[in-house]
Amino acid sequence: MADPLPNTIRVDVGGLMADTLGGGYGVSEDALERLRPRIDAAREAVQSSRGEGWLGWMALPYQPAPLIDEIEEAAGEIRSRFDAFVLLGIGGSALGPICVHEALHPLRYNELPKDKRGGPRVYFEDNIDPERMSALRAVVDFDDACFNVITKSGGTAETMSQYLYVRGALSKNPGWRGQVIATTSGVKGLLLDIARLEGFRTFVIPEGVGGRFSELSPVGLLAAAVGGADIRELLRGARDMDARCAASGLWENPALLEAALMYIACMQMGRNIQVMMPYADSLRLVADWFVQLWAESLGKRVDRAGAVVNAGQTPVKALGVTDQHSQLQLYSEGPFDKVVTMIKVESFNEDTPIPAAPENYPEDIRFLGGLTHGRLIEAERFGTEYALTQAKRMNQTIILPRVNEYTLGQLLYFFEMATAYMGELLNIDAFNQPGVEASKIATYAKLGHPAERYEVARAELAAAPKRGARYII
Ligand code: PA5
């Protein structure tokens, strides 16, 4: 019988459960039952406020058709007019677009000839390494490039310093303003002011959509459409996952179950680390995106009542099978402090048959002939799952029938919903990031930012005892 839901992603949590691992190593049904009132309350809290406040991202799968038309139209123009598309952004304003691009396009996309790409080469500049912009300039003709400047707050130093660099390089051309697209808040912020001043084309990041939850807004949709992805399918995937993640039955609601299991694993069983390990190069950067989402949302000093909780589960990125030869030894024999989450692709978009080896080759090499790399990678993932389970290590597998816009939309939205539910269970604010402020303020104070609001920090820095460096010689 044909699979009734051929493109639906599934999560196999068997390797997290006590009845699979035995010996008290997994989550018991009893532990889940005991948490049940709080699980139900978490679901109710998120679902009853959907779309409100910082849950504004829950409305993104349902964005109005005219906005999607406008994004596609802008992308079409960029695809036909420019040789390169460069995204300037950092954190939540870059990681989503990067991971979606990598997932949906051939791995060596920029190196393909133009007729095979069908659109511009695509670059994501999410760091301010001083060597980076000149490296970009060495391969991109800035006069033939479109620059998408993305910052929700509008004033992020990294992004805006890159913008100024690009502006400096472009502004001799009378038409340079047509090469810049600003994606930012529609209400306030310095980039919005600049966009109005310069007359840039602008896309709005809706209020209530924080950076790390913004992939399905114009932040991610424009870049995806520029690469030729079907953004309607991405949103359809998110909508279908949204419906599943609203269900009241715990075993029918993948994100709620995921949050409940991770909460028990982390808070009751000391599994303070979650390793995200896709077995597909195309999903490698989904792990990067997840790491930011899980870390910045859930790593909090205080709960909503102000009590110090130092909450969070440390996300770690890994890649199957590459990191089997790097990290797996630790995961199967080191401390019992981890959950390993594998992502499995059932059917790769391309597969490479492994030709038969000559008869006079050793048996162990001849054995590989006739397999495909798709079969080999899945066999290795299975081997890891088996070995971890035998070693009583908590593990789970997220299964994508294939990697496409629809399954990716489901996957990203699943993680966002799991994060929101986990935030509820932890009783923390999953949508702020106060822990990164201190470093920002110190940076500006060190650079001598003249604004009054940095006065205290400037004085503190000047008065602070010199931090003595101690070198290992
Ligand atoms: O998730 C977040 O809110 C952050 O990671 C931001 O995306 C990041 O700090 C960049 O902020 P902005 O988009 O305001 O430049």
Give a nutshell description of this structure.
44% of the residues lie in helices and 13% in strands.
Descriptive notes:
It is a single chain. Helix 2 (29-48) crosses helix 16 (405-426) and helix 10 (231-244) packs across helix 16. The chain is an alpha/beta fold and 473 residues long. The strands form three sheets. It has a five-stranded mixed beta sheet with strand order 1-12-11-7-10, sandwiched between helices. Strands 3-2-4-5-6 form a five-stranded parallel beta sheet, sandwiched between helices. It is 44% helix and 13% strand. The protein is globular and about 65 Å long. It folds into three domains: 10-34 and 235-426, Rossmann fold (3-Layer(aba) Sandwich), CATH 3.40.50; 55-229, Glucose-6-phosphate isomerase like protein, domain 1 (Rossmann fold, 3-Layer(aba) Sandwich), CATH 3.40.50.10490; 434-471, no CATH class. The structure holds 5-phosphoarabinonic acid (PA5). 5-phosphoarabinonic acid (PA5) binds next to loops.
Secondary-structure topology with pairs:
Blueprint (H helix, E strand, L loop, with lengths): L9 E3 L5 H4 L7 H20 L16 H17 L2 E5 L6 H10 L9 H4 L3 E5 L6 H8 L5 E7 L5 H14 L9 E6 L4 H9 L2 E5 L12 H9 L4 H14 L9 H15 L4 E6 L5 H15 L1 E3 L5 E4 L2 E4 L10 H6 L4 E8 L17 H4 L6 H18 L3 E7 L4 H22 L10 H10 L8 H9 L10
Parallel strand pairs: 2-3, 2-4, 4-5, 5-6, 7-10, 7-11, 11-12
Antiparallel strand pairs: 1-12, 8-9
The chain binds 5-phosphoarabinonic acid.
